[in-house]
Amino acid sequence: FYAIILLMPLTGALAWFGGVEASAAVHRAGMLAIFVLLLLHVAGALYQHFVLKTDVMRRILRPEKGG
Predict the structure, then answer these.
(1) Please, what are the averages of pLDDT over each run of 10 residues along the chain (67 residues)?
(2) pTM for this predicted structure
(3) Which residue from 59, 13, 66, 7 is spatially nearest to 33, judged by alpha carbons?
(4) Structural domain tally of the chain?
């Protein structure tokens, strides 16, 4: 995931300023990969909450005030 995050600005700059079409293709693939990972992350959180009935979402949204 972090490799994709680091490659996105590099490939975008090469495509934008250098006109490198291969870099633009890598940039588009990275965009799709990030979008898919985001959807999987949200689906996993919803699965934890509604199917497994864990309190992960509650702990994220309302953390305890102690330390």
Answers:
(1) 94 96 97 98 95 92 79
(2) 0.79
(3) 7
(4) 1
